[in-house]
Structures are given as structure tokens and as C-alpha cells.
Write a structure and sequence with these properties.
By secondary structure, the protein is α/β, with parallel strands linked by helices. It has 17 helices and nine strands. It is 47% helix and 11% strand. It binds adenosine-3'-5'-diphosphate (A3P). Keywords: Transferase.
Length: 334
């Protein structure tokens, strides 16, 4: 997080606490293991890798963010279906106010409908809308601000085949991260992903943290896979509504509310909306970004077009070996 941004907001929210957390983050970073990331140096903190900006955001969030017990967190490693999960969640949660012809999702990018702990932290600390109960984050389970677990917040986690996750992340990096920096060769980026030295990685550790927590507390943590959502979105929209304590009534089911939500949040529909084709979000932050970058193909198995068989096999083997004994598999059809 840029110091100017922190200073600008520090006068609003507990200035001293924020400055303290900011100074703490600046002191911690030089003491950490450092590695070359895809586009900037990355640092190992509590077992995961981040660039310095995200890391400062994480340390600030850990020090300052206080969850409310009614908060529900949408958690994910980047490029595993966060945008889709946000859209589905928002549509489910607001269905009595809006339908598919009036939903804010038609004019607002899903990331603008559900705030994110890392990118919207300052707003959440200073002017949190009391009606905001859904929040999102890419931070790993073991590094979540303590109050999230202590307050018993519910969590939905979505994960994805690591091969598609890598490809999606790489394509995203090509479009945005390499605008201002020299791109590293894809083979090198792949190697780093396989070593676990990648943004928010190791990927398998990110997944395992939430997987194990979901086994311990299934009533608090709903664990989803992108591929299963793609296969039967209707089933999972129902599961989400039940998990959020807002199950669909028989009347809603008969009226086709679930199918309408699935259709409205489909890749085809969202990616063709004007706001997602030409809009940008987080314009007032250092993270401004074109909305269309979050809608690329939305397919399962797109890795087949981008990775060699050897690369795909290597990543599958690494991940499955790391997951072995956990009861979870990410690259095998179940
Ligand atoms: P691809 O790059 O494979 O197309 P995230 O939202 O976590 O950044 O993940 C982005 C991935 O989700 C991209 O995958 C994107 O195309 C896909 N995606 C975005 N919206 C989607 C939707 N409504 N349905 C299915 N996939 C979607």
C-alpha cells in the first residue's frame, strides 16, 4: 500500500494505529526471505509469498481489521473464480430487492459489489457500510486477521485445477502486470509456480489451509471447486443460499429465481455487459484495472491449449503429491 495513500487516510481511522501498523510492515519486509517474482520481488511471510504492496496490506489488515460475526468471507487464491463467486453471492443475497433486469450487477463489476479486504481495506476501516456483510480476500486461511476466525464468521472458499489457475494467472499477468515491467519467460514463471514461489502461493498450501478448516468446521466453511460449479451451477447456487441462511422458498424455485441468477451470473452474460467490456474499477486507488481482464474464457481445461503435456504432468504430480492423504484432489476427475 502506498505511503501517501496510507497517510491520506490516516487522519480518518485511528491515525496512530494505522501509522504504527504501517511502520511495522516497513520494518518486517526487509527481514523476510525475498525472491524474484513474475514482475517484482516477492517476500515470504507466514509461509506464503506476496509483493511488498500486498504484504503491507496484509499486515495492516492483520493489525487493524475487526470482523463482525455476521460477516461472510469469500476466499480464494487469485484466478480460481473469485469474480464469479462474488457475482453469484451478490445475486443470491440481493434477490428480494433486485431481479435480473434491475440488479446492480448489470452496471457494476462484481468486484465493485463485494469489497475486498486487501484492495478496499482503507474504506473498510474508515467508512464501512453497516449493510456490507460480504467481504472477499485472497489471503490464506492461516494469515487471516484473527477476528475473522474468533468471531465465527462464515467462509466460502473456491479453488480450481492448478493447471487452469496457472494459465489464467499467466494470461492476466501478460495483460496487466507486464505493462510496466519486462515479462519473465513463461517457463520460468511456471517453474516458480511449481516451486510454490508465486503470488499468494504455494497454491496447494492455500487450498489445503481452507480444505482442512472446512473439514473441521463444515458449518462455518463451505469449500467449492470451480469445475463443480461449472458442471452444476444451479445446485451450487442453492448450496450458497442455504449456507448464507437465505434458502430459496418453494415459490422462488417455481418462479425460476435460481435459474435466472445462474443465467445472469454466467460468463456469457457478465462478459458481454457494457460495464465489463469497457469499464474500469478501483479508479480512485493504485489498483485501477480494466474490468474485461477478469473475463477471459471461463473454461475448464483451457490449460490444454497453453501447457505442454510435460508441464501439465509435472504440475499435476506436484500438487497431487502435496495433497495426498488430505482427501482432496484437484487434477483428477472424481
Ligand atoms: P480464465 O482466465 O481461465 O478464463 P478470478 O475471478 O479469481 O480472478 O478468476 C478469473 C477466472 O474466472 C478467469 O478464468 C475468468 O474468465 C473466469 N470467470 C470470470 N467470470 C466468470 C463467470 N461468470 N463464470 C465462469 N468463469 C468466470
Amino acid at each position: 500500500m502506498e505511503s501517501s495513500l496510507v497517510q491520506e487516510h490516516a487522519s480518518n481511522a485511528g491515525m496512530e494505529a494505522m501509522q504504527k501498523a504501517h511502520i511495522r510492515s516497513l520494518e518486517i519486509i526487509p527481514t523476510l526471505n525475498k525472491s524474484k517474482g513474475w514482475h517484482s520481488d516477492i517476500y515470504e511471510y507466514q509461509g506464503f509469498w506476496y509483493d511488498s504492496m500486498l504484504l503491507q496490506g496484509l499486515i495492516l489488515a492483520q493489525d487493524l481489521f475487526r470482523a463482525q460475526s455476521s460477516d461472510i468471507f469469500l476466499c480464494s487464491h487469485p484466478k480460481t473464480g473469485t469474480t464469479w463467486l462474488k457475482a453469484l453471492t451478490f445475486a443470491v443475497a440481493t434477490r428480494t430487492q433486485f431481479d435480473e433486469s434491475s440488479s446492480p450487477l448489470l452496471t457494476k463489476m462484481p468486484h465493485d459489489c463485494i469489497p475486498s479486504l486487501e484492495f478496499d481495506l482503507l474504506k473498510l476501516l474508515n467508512q464501512r457500510d453497516p449493510e456490507t456483510h460480504f467481504l472477499a480476500t485472497h489471503f490464506p486461511y492461516s494469515s487471516l486477521p484473527k477476528s475473522i476466525i474468533a468471531s465465527g464468521c462464515k467462509i466460502v472458499y473456491v479453488c480450481r485445477d492448478p493447471r487452469d489457475t496457472f494459465v489464467s494467472r499467466w494470461k492476466f499477468a501478460e495483460k496487466i502486470l507486464f505493462k510496466h515491467t519486462e515479462p519473465i519467460p513463461v517457463e520460468e514463471a511456471f517453474e516458480k509456480f511449481c516451486e510454490g514461489v508465486s503470488h499468494n502461493g504455494p497454491y496447494w498450501e492455500h487450498v489445503l489451509g481452507f480444505w482442512r478448516a472446512s473439514l473441521e468446521s463444515p458449518e462455518k466453511i463451505l469449500f467449492l471447486k470451480y469445475e463443480e460449479l461449472k458442471k452444476d451451477p444451479t445446485l451450487y447456487v442453492k448450496k450458497l443460499a442455504d449456507f448464507y441462511g437465505r434458502p430459496f422458498s418453494v415459490e422462488e424455485e417455481e418462479k425460476g429465481v435460481i435459474e435466472n441468477i445462474v443465467k445472469m451470473c454466467s460468463f456469457e452474460n457478465l462478459s458481454n455487459l457494457e460495464v465489463n467490456k469497457t469499464g474500469k474499477h478501483r479508479l480512485d486507488t493504485p489498483f485501477a484495472i480494466e474490468n474485461n481482464l477478469f473475463f477471459r474464457k471461463g473454461n475448464v481445461g483451457d490449460w490444454k491449449d497453453c501447457l505442454t503435456n510435460e508441464m501439465a504432468e509435472r504440475l499435476s504430480q506436484i500438487v497431487e503429491q502435496k495433497l495426498s492423504g488430505s482427501g482432496l484432489t484437484l487434477t483428477k476427475t472424481q
